[in-house]
Each structure stands twice: as structure tokens, then as C-alpha cells.
């Protein structure tokens, strides 16, 4: 039969394996990097026969996203094999590949210790050295049941009970047998960089009434260099952990006695947040939004109209006042609907863009709460755009441009994903299609690349999720644009069109930064606590060498403050070196030292964060330099922003 590999067509005998077919076309060097192949989008084992219908094979290389997935999933099998060798009483459950690694859940008589993990890792290396082949056998379910029954692998039996098909596939490597759809790499020797990372508890099938399992996590990469880079990134992420930096820089705290997932902002954190919010208000006004403010609690009836009561109730908090039940808002949409409805709208009034820094409460399970990144109370930079159907695409583009500019301001790259209709949803098929197409065509007509997230939309409409990439190349979901044809219907919103007819507006829900709390968490980690000058809570600190300079230091602070700079003096009777170190630990962008010479010449000795020494400068030049540094990110992003208003002295 004829088969094409990377544009080269060769003849292969019927029943030839994928590996045989690839050997015909690929160089030995390239072939060594291939861990599987793809035919018509389906990934196949190299040992599998080339399917009859297959016309072309595409090699899957070890460092491609699909290749890495295979390495990681295969590493999970190898880890399970190692565990079974060392702990024969352990029962295996499931072991998928995950982002950057893999895990396997075991039902073990006692928790694994760090020493156990070391022993398992050593055993993994042995199995890799043995270069065990992964072989796949397809068999009737009954036959597979017998195999796993004999081994006492009761979890595998339970998994099989839920499978509807009559045949299943099992994969073997050495003595280890696993129920698995595959595919896999050809043999364990292809694993060149595997490392176990940690153990945690997990419930079988995530159900807290089922047995507690031991989940061993590991990571696997195509080569030791990539593994090392990843492990360094993990180390760096630990150093940058926003909970640690939040404490050290005195930005915020979270107290169990107050409630999990509730943040208390300390002066410096609250100041950074205020600067962000102030920037947002101005930027929204500039882009044609109106600022509105709605109540935190609204009567239950309102949530029934919106559909939240039926579809989102389990995530909401309720309270009772005068025998009337109120829902604490998990979203800001409802008040905005009422602003729209407060008067008759003409086609000329649209689009209406209503913006609110709205504080919402959502009941997240205690187990998923995480510092600022997952909280129960947070403030969104939320807006609802109500427009005519013919304006929809331009409005979507306007939001994308907004997000683009703001991401540029912080130096973030970003990616876009389109999420389509989930299983649990409201609205007609036709509406969903219209909304999904509007989002698609806005991106496509501007050549913006995007991925599709099947079934991950909100219950009321499809959405574009924008994921930013931070300094450690981690992705964070912040901005979203959600299309909604349902809420205008439910609230019976209308406008009078050119032809005098009443028509239904279309609505977009959108956030740019998303939750301010979460965005702050991302910023802290991205900048490792060293905020850009325009955001830094303290931009400059004046340090004296001895008491003799106190008077001038205070004068310098007053001069810089008057120019709108957030500056303070450290007049403590401590050694200069000590004061400098402390300011550096607090990541203050400018350290301004004042000694006798500086007093005499009415200047400051300037040290920039990162330890660059500029020598003595006049107060005037220093102020101009700091203010210019504040403007820089805005000039690059094509935005203008007046700093005089962003500063503490004028807030
Ligand atoms: Zn498998
Ligand atoms: Zn909304």
C-alpha cells in the first residue's frame, strides 16, 4: 500500500507497522526523536499496523506537546510498575498525564514517605535501563476482567464495569499490566528525564466517601536539560509565591478566623490595588464606558429571572431580611440590566457600556482556595456592553484591543481560547450558534490565532478566554469576553430601531484584569514583588547617614512628594548598610542616600533597584527621572495616563 510521510510517498506491505512506514521516509536521527505517529488526527503506537484507510502518517516527536503527553503517561505506567515491585500489596487505580507531568493514584496500606519516593525513583531508573517494551493487547472485556481479578486489582474491575464497549485494551511493560486506551511510547528506554516531585492524598473518583488514595506526582521531559529548566522554574516559582511575598512585603493577609478565601489588604497592598483600580476607571472612561455601582445583595426573585437561582445557586450565599430572601451577588450583571431598563433606549443610544468595579462572593470549596488566586470574595473589573447585533463584532474587537493594550502595559504575552456550549446551559441552539460565530469572526477577521475549548462556555453563552503568560511562562486566565443572548431576553430588554420596531439588544459580559485579587497575585509572582515604578507602593526612600542630614532628608521628601512621587524617609539611627539592605528587601525602586556632601549640594545619591548606582543628582532631576520611568510602560502600550492622579498624595 501507498503511504505518505512528511510529503514523501512510499510503498509498504499490507500489515506493516507504523514504525516500518516511518523508517522508509525519515532519517535515523529524526526517527530517534519519534515516540508515536498520527493518522488523521489519531495518535497511534509505533508498533500498531498502519490502518488500511490511512493515507498519510505524521511523526509525533518527543518534545512536541503530544509527544510529551505520551512520555508523561508512559512514565506513569513505569512509576506504577516500580511501585508494584517495591510494594506488592498496593492497588493501582489511574495514572494520567497532566500539565508538565503525571501522577498515579495508589491504594496503599500506609502513606508513602520521602524515603519511599527515593526508592521508587531508583526503581524507575532500573525499569528505564531495562528498556521494557510497551505492548498493547485488545481482548474481550471478560478476559481482561479475569486478568485483573487474579491480580486483585479491584479498582480496574470497577473502571471496567463502567465501560460500555465489549473489548478493552491492556498495555504491558515487563510484569506490569494496565487497563489503558493508550497510545504509548515504544519502550521505557525512551524516557530520558523523569523525576518524582511529591505525594498527596486524593479520593477515589474525587468522592470524599470513597477510600483515600496516595497520589504520587512526577514530571517527565524529552531530555535532562528540559527537565532541569522546569525544576528551576518550580524553584523560582516557590521563591516568588505571592503568599510568601505578600507577607514579606506586608501587602495582605488571610485569616482563618475571618473566613477562608477572604483577603485583608494592608496599606501597601491596598495602595497598589487602588492605583490599579484608579487606572482602570480612567481607562474605561476614555474608552467610552460609563461607570455604575450596584448593590451587593438583591432579592431572590431577581436571581430567578436571571437563571442564577436555577443554575448557579450552589455557588451563591443567601441572607434573609424582613422575611425576604436575598442573594449575595456572585456576578454584577443584574444591576446593569436595570440601568439599561431604566429608560427607553433608541438604536442611537447603543452601544451602552456599563462598567463596575464590582465586589462579588462565590462559594468555592475550601480545598481549592489558594492565596489571592482562588478566593471567595473578590472584585472584578466587570462591564456589560449592550449593543445592536450589527455592532457586536466591533464591540468584541474593542474589548480585545483593550485587553491587548493592558497586557502590553505589564509586558504580558497572551493567548486566546474560544469556549463553546457546555452540557448544562440555557438558550436555544440558534442563539448559541450566532453568539459563537460572532466571537469567532471577530478573531478571524483580524487574523488573531485562537484555540477551541469544547464545552467550556458559561451556562448562558460562549466566551473568549484570554490567558496571559507570566515571567515563568505560566499561563493565567484573566480576561474573558462572554456573549449572551439570554439575559436580555430574560430581562425583556429592548431598543427602538430605526424602523420604529422594538428589538432585542445583544449583550457582552467582559472583564479585562478579571478578579483584582487574582491579578494582584499574578503580578506579585510575575514581578517577584518588584512592582514597576508606576505601581510600587513606595517608589523612593531617602536614607540618611547620620542625624546631621535629617532636616535636609525631610525637605527632600517634601519636594519629591510635591511632584507626586510616593516617597518616605528612613531617619532611624541605624547603619547606612542596614537601611539600604532593608530597602532592597522591600524592593523599593529608588534608594536616595543623603550624606554631608548631598546636604551641601542639595542633591541625593541615587541607587536604582538592581543595584545600579547613578551617583549624585539634583532633586529636580531625580523627580523627573522617576516620573519618566512611570510613563514608560504606557508610552509603549500606546496608552497615556496621567501619573499625577495615580499617586498617593492626590488620591
Ligand atoms: Zn496507559
Ligand atoms: Zn455579567
From TrEMBL:
Q: Where do the Aminoacyl-transfer RNA synthetases class-II family profile domain residues begin and end?
A: 241-532
Q: PROSITE patterns annotated for this entry? A: AA_TRNA_LIGASE_II, TGS
Q: Which GO terms describe its molecular function?
A: ATP binding; metal ion binding; threonine-tRNA ligase activity; tRNA binding
Its cofactor is:
Zn(2+)
**Among its keywords, does the record have Ligase?**
yes
Q: What protein family is recorded?
A: Belongs to the class-II aminoacyl-tRNA synthetase family.
| CDD domains recorded | ThrRS_anticodon, ThrRS_core
On cofactor binding, the record's note says:
Binds 1 zinc ion per subunit.
- InterPro entries given in the database record: aa-tRNA-synt_IIb, aa-tRNA-synth_II, aa-tRNA-synth_II/BPL/LPL, Anticodon-bd, Anticodon-bd_dom_sf, TGS, Thr-tRNA-ligase_IIa, Thr/Ala-tRNA-synth_IIc_edit
Gene encoding this chain? thrS
Q: How does it assemble?
A: Homodimer.
Record's catalysed reaction(s): tRNA(Thr) + L-threonine + ATP = L-threonyl-tRNA(Thr) + AMP + diphosphate + H(+)
State the species of origin.
Oceanidesulfovibrio marinus
Q: Which residues bind Zn(2+)?
A: 333, 384, 509
A GO CC term attached to the entry: cytosol
UniProt-recorded name of the protein: Threonine--tRNA ligase
Amino acid at each position: 500500500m501507498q503511504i505518505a510521510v512528511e510529503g514523501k510517498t512510499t510503498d509498504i506491505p499490507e500489515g506493516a507497522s507504523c514504525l516500518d512506514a516511518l523508517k522508509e521516509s525519515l532519517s535515523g536521527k529524526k526517527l530517534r526523536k519519534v515516540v508515536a505517529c498520527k493518522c488523521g488526527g489519531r495518535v497511534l503506537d509505533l508498533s500498531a499496523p498502519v490502518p488500511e484507510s490511512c493515507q498519510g502518517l505524521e511523526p509525533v516527536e518527543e518534545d512536541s506537546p503530544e509527544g510529551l503527553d505520551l512520555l508523561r503517561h508512559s512514565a506513569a505506567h513505569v512509576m506504577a510498575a516500580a511501585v508494584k515491585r517495591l510494594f506488592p500489596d498496593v492497588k493501582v487505580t489511574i495514572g494520567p498525564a497532566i500539565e508538565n507531568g503525571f501522577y498515579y493514584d495508589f491504594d496503599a496500606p500506609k502513606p508513602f514517605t520521602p524515603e519511599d519516593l527515593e526508592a521508587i525513583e531508583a526503581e524507575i531508573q532500573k525499569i528505564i535501563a531495562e528498556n521494557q517494551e510497551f505492548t498493547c493487547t485488545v481482548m474481550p472485556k471478560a478476559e481482561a476482567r479475569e486478568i485483573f481479578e487474579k491480580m486483585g486489582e479491584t479498582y480496574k474491575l470497577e473502571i471496567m464495569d463502567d465501560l460500555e464497549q465489549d473489548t478493552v485494551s491492556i498495555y504491558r511493560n515487563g510484569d506490569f499490566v494496565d487497563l489503558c486506551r493508550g497510545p504509548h511510547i515504544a519502550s521505557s528506554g525512551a524516557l530520558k528525564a523523569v523525576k518524582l516531585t511529591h505525594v498527596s492524598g486524593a479520593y477515589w473518583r474525587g468522592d470524599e466517601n470513597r477510600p483515600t488514595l496516595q497520589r504520587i506526582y512526577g514530571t517527565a521531559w524529552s531530555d535532562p536539560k528540559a527537565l532541569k529548566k522546569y525544576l528551576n522554574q518550580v524553584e523560582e516559582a516557590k521563591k516568588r509565591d505571592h503568599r510568601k511575598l505578600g507577607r514579606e512585603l506586608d501587602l495582605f493577609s488571610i485569616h482563618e478566623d475571618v473566613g477562608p478565601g477572604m483577603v485583608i489588604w494592608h496599606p501597601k497592598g491596598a495602595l497598589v490595588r487602588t492605583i490599579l483600580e484608579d487606572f482602570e476607571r480612567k481607562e474605561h472612561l476614555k474608552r467610552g464606558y460609563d461607570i455604575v455601582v450596584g448593590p451587593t445583595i438583591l432579592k431572590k426573585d431577581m436571581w430567578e429571572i436571571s437563571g442564577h437561582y436555577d443554575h448557579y445557586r450552589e455557588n451563591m450565599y443567601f441572607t434573609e431580611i424582613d422575611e425576604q430572601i436575598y442573594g449575595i451577588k456572585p456576578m454584577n450583571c443584574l444591576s446593569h440590566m436595570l440601568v439599561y431598563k431604566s429608560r427607553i433606549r433608541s438604536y442611537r443610544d447603543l452601544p451602552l457600556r456599563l462598567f463596575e468595579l464590582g465586589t462579588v462572593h462565590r462559594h468555592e470549596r475550601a480545598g481549592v482556595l489558594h492565596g489571592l488566586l482562588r478566593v471567595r470574595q473578590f472584585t472584578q473589573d466587570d462591564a456589560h456592553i449592550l449593543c445592536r447585533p450589527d455592532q457586536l463584532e466591533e464591540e468584541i474587537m474593542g474589548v480585545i484591543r483593550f485587553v491587548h493594550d493592558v497586557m502590553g502595559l505589564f509586558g504580558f504575552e497572551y493567548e486566546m481560547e474560544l469556549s463553546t456550549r457546555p452540557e448544562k446551559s440555557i438558550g436555544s441552539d440558534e442563539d448559541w450558534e450566532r453568539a459563537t460565530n460572532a466571537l469567532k469572526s471577530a478573531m478571524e477577521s483580524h487574523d488573531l490565532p485562537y484555540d477551541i475549548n469544547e464545552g467550556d462556555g458559561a451556562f448562558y453563552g460562549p466566551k473568549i478566554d484570554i490567558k496571559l503568560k507570566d515571567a515563568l511562562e505560566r499561563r493565567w486566565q484573566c480576561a474573558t469576553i462572554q456573549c449572551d443572548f439570554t439575559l436580555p431576553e430574560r430581562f425583556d430588554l429592548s431598543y427602538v430601531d430605526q424602523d420604529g420596531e422594538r428589538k432585542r439588544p445583544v449583550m457582552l459580559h467582559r472583564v479585562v484584569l478579571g478578579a483584582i485579587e487574582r491579578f494582584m497575585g499574578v503580578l506579585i509572582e510575575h514581578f517577584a514583588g518588584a512592582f514597576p515604578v508606576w505601581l510600587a507602593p513606595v517608589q523612593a526612600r531617602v536614607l540618611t547617614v547620620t542625624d546631621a542630614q535629617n532636616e535636609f532628608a525631610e525637605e527632600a521628601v517634601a519636594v519629591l512628594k510635591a511632584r507626586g512621587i510616593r516617597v518616605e524617609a528612613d531617619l532611624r539611627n541605624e547603619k547606612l548598610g542596614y537601611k539600604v539592605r532593608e530597602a532592597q528587601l522591600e524592593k523599593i525602586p529608588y534608594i536616595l542616600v543623603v550624606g554631608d556632601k548631598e546636604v551641601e549640594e542639595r542633591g541625593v545619591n541615587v541607587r536604582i533597584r538592581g543595584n545600579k548606582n547613578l551617583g549624585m543628582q539634583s532633586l529636580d532631576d531625580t523627580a523627573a527621572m522617576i516620573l519618566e520611568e512611570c510613563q514608560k510602560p504606557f508610552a509603549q502600550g500606546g496608552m497615556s495616563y496621567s501619573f499625577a492622579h495615580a499617586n498617593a498624595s492626590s488620591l
